[in-house]
Design a protein that fits this description.
The chain is about 0% helix and about 45% strand. By secondary structure, the chain is mainly β. Strand 25 and strand 26 form a beta hairpin.
Length: about 750
């Protein structure tokens, strides 16, 4: 809602389930909601033992004239599988700040009572233990800008701690009864529909990997464009109505799709705020922002784009009293017995939309800010539903200048034969100052394991040597579920894949628990490649069932492949290369040095280069000295543009030859890990490209983030080969290597076998 209000006193989960009740042209809005007091930070699922607060919100609104209702009573029944908490009956502002109460449980002079499981809370001026009082829109409190009165009737329950996960709690209908006094006269009863939540144990089934989103409207990203206001409406069901952005819209119950949230299109996110009159910000208050998709900094999102520039679209929502649907669609291509992530990114748009209970806005004299000097107003709050069951709520989304974009979501398991479901995200906060938010990157994604090939990205074999190739893929997941696997091969650059056939090309793994994850290794039977096999790609796909494995939409793969390269290696000579190094000199020239061992009867060295690491040409030569200790060098005077690969060919006096390893120089990259031995066994070997001579810090960490090794290595400009040899005692597991130089950081996942 594009105005301001005093903030909610409980850091909690809030979801506004019931549809609203209307009377006399929308003068009275009514809703029912449930706050998970046990989840104080960041949202979550519902668990046994959680404390919930049930809330009925009543908004009496002024339209062309004031509205007055009388004899206002709220009735409800404590839900089954929950227990009423004594001294929890109260009346609160729309942000949860206690206005009256708490009340005793008995029928006495105060406004609340419980008899058996039957709750009664009487509201309004002169309300007591037996009858409701009067609420007038322009004079009653809590007041919203002295034109509306918004209050909540509340009580708390605790979910049975012994209740099993998967249990469903049904919230009874409940009702609000009142008499309309002005402008018309008559009795009204608003009965709430029943609502259901499901208890779900939180898990991060997607922590190892996931496929792209199956959500509609450009996979939930809303596409991009050069026009600030996207022409097309949302590509899924929503109860909000589309409007173009301006200083006064989107209005309550409307949305806009934009690539810049400033009505004027300015890109200065620190422009003055508040504005009077509004010029560059919606209502003179909302943030100026870009979208979230593919942001380098996921917490900050993307900067806004200037008019006429292409930028990603995102959705601005001005939510109010109603529990409107922000997103709803039915997906019919789900995979049975499979974990999915249902998530989205949100941003609280308004830093100063609060209005206190006396009706004073955040910019008014006498305004009383919420504790902590918070004047942002009603915090957005969203619930996530699957097939009509509420699984998860976001909690109250605080206004946060430092990390404005926040991801909320959960994972769930489809039924054994389930292939469709209805997904929904719903507004759950009451209206009245605030509750203005942005949404982007809606994701409904197939969760899967990590797949780590023993050679990645390529296995290089020699054309002259007939040696077997042994490929394997290590599959790891939080659950013992992805047991079915199949090897595939691609002859066309990894774009079209076919199933491999024969013994050992498919099967059922036997996962074992390794460092908290279920792991097994799929091993492809060894084969001897030919030159014709060069360029083939190999991968493993996995699934939770045999049927899913044979389905192109349900078999899982994470893009991890191995390419087979068959190269000409020459013949074996008694002499060998000890080291090959390269660095950049004179800004853009390559300088190559190499040393040898057992140098005997060698005629010359030919220096070769390539721009693609495949097609090498001779660029120079050096005559061999055939002495015990010598360092050779060569300067490539050609200007360096992009990557350039170097190798040296050793040729003896009979014309026999062998090739060195390959080093690379890149003028456009200052700090890069060119190659690393993965998986590793007793030691690590890596090639590190650096722009200047300096120390680098190398750390080796366990999968849980514990540092187990630390090294400092001196490097030089160009390609550096670094060896780490003290790793044989480490257990076989997943590790991470972190390399740092001058604030630049490289992080890679490794497997020890």
């Amino acid at each position: 809602m594009g105005k301001n209000l005093l903030f909610f006193s409980l850091l909690s989960l809030f979801f506004f389930i019931a549809k609203q009740g209307y009377a006399q042209g929308g003068r009275v809005d009514i809703g029912k909601s449930y706050v998970n007091i046990s989840k104080l930070n960041g949202g979550g699922t519902f668990n046994p033992g959680d404390t919930l607060e049930i809330r009925v919100t009543i908004a009496v609104k002024k339209t062309t004239s004031y509205t007055a209702i009388d004899s206002v009573q709220v009735f409800d029944i404590v839900p089954a599988h929950t227990t009423f908490i004594n001294n929890s009956l109260r009346v609160a502002t729309n942000q949860g700040l206690t206005y009256k109460g708490p009340f005793t449980s008995g029928i006495d002079a105060d406004q609340g009572s419980i008899v058996g499981n039957n709750i009664t809370i009487n509201l309004g001026n002169n309300a007591n233990g037996t009858r409701g009082g009067r609420i007038r829109s322009d004079t009653s409190k809590p007041s919203f800008y002295k034109s509306h009165c918004i209050m909540m009737a509340c009580y708390r329950v605790r979910i049975d701690p012994a209740l099993a996960y998967g249990s469903i709690i049904t919230f009874n209908n409940g009702s609000v009864k009142y008499k309309m006094v002005t402008p018309n006269n008559g009795w009204f009863t608003n009965t709430f529909p029943s609502s259901r939540i499901i208890l779900l144990k939180y898990s991060n089934a997607c922590e190892d990997g996931k496929n792209i989103s199956a959500a509609s409207d450009s996979l939930g990203t809303f596409a991009s464009g050069t026009v600030q206001n996207r022409v097309a409406p949302l590509g899924f069901t929503t109860t909000y109505i589309k409007q173009n952005i301006s200083t006064g819209q989107p209005n309550d119950y409307y949305y806009a799709i934009v690539n810049n949230s400033s009505p004027s299109g300015i890109i200065n996110t620190h422009a003055p705020m508040p504005e009077s009159p509004a010029l560059n910000r919606v209502f003179g208050l909302w943030d100026i922002s870009g979208d979230h998709t593919s942001a380098a900094n996921t917490a900050m999102g993307n900067p806004p784009v200037a008019p006429g520039k292409r930028g990603g679209y995102f959705v601005l929502v001005n939510a109010s009293y109603n529990t409107d649907l922000a997103y709803q669609e039915t997906l019919n291509n789900l995979c049975p017995n499979t974990y999915y992530e249902f998530s989205a990114w949100f941003r609280n748009l308004c830093p100063r939309c609060s209005c206190d209970s006396n009706g004073n806005g955040s910019g008014s004299n006498g305004f009383l800010p919420y504790p902590g000097n918070d004047s942002s107003g009603v915090r957005p709050n969203l619930s996530y539903e699957v097939d009509g069951l509420i699984y998860y709520t976001s909690g109250d989304i605080k206004y946060d200048r430092n990390e404005p974009w926040k991801k909320f979501g959960f994972t769930f398991l489809t039924g054994f034969a389930q292939n469709s479901a209805v997904f929904a995200i719903r507004n759950n906060s009451p209206g009245g100052g605030g509750n203005d938010w942005a949404i982007d990157d809606i994701t409904i994604a197939h969760c899967g394991p990590s797949l780590t090939m023993n050679y990645n990205p390529a296995y290089i074999a020699c054309k002259e040597v007939s040696a077997p190739v042994q490929l394997s893929d290590t599959i790891r997941h939080i659950y013992n579920s992805y047991r079915f696997y199949k090897w595939q091969v691609s002859n066309v650059g990894g774009t079209i894949w076919t199933d491999m056939v024969g013994p050992g090309t498919s099967g059922i793994g036997t996962p074992v628990l390794v460092n908290g994850k279920y792991q097994y290794v799929a091993v492809l039977p060894a084969f001897i490649p030919t030159y014709a096999d060069s360029g083939k790609y190999f991968r493993v796909i996995v699934a939770t069932t045999a049927a899913n494995l044979n389905s192109t939409s349900c078999a899982y793969q994470d893009g991890n492949t191995t390419m087979l390269q068959i190269v000409t290696c020459g013949v074996i000579l008694k002499s060998d290369f000890a080291q090959l190094k390269a660095k950049i000199i004179d800004t853009n020239k390559g300088f190559i040095t190499w040393t040898t061992t057992n140098e005997s009867d060698i005629d010359r060295y030919e220096i070769e280069s390539s721009d693609n690491n495949l097609d090498f040409i001779k660029i120079g030569e050096a005559m061999a000295l055939n002495i015990p200790s010598v360092i050779y060098n060569y300067t490539d005077v050609r200007p360096l543009h992009g990557p350039r690969y170097y190798r040296v060919k050793m040729i003896d006096k009979n014309g026999l030859w062998k090739l060195s390893s390959i080093v690379v120089l890149r003028a456009d990259v200052q700090f890069d890990l060119i190659a690393i031995k993965n998986p590793f066994n007793s030691g690590l070997s890596l090639n590190l490209l650096t722009a200047s001579p300096a120390l680098v810090n190398i750390g080796l960490f366990t999968e849980k983030g514990q540092q187990i090794r630390a090294y400092k290595k001196q490097v030089f400009t160009g390609n550096n080969q670094i060896n780490i040899d003290d790793l044989s005692a480490l257990p076989n597991a997943i590790y991470f290597i972190v390399i740092e130089q001058n604030g630049n950081i490289i992080r890679r996942k490794l497997l020890k076998e």
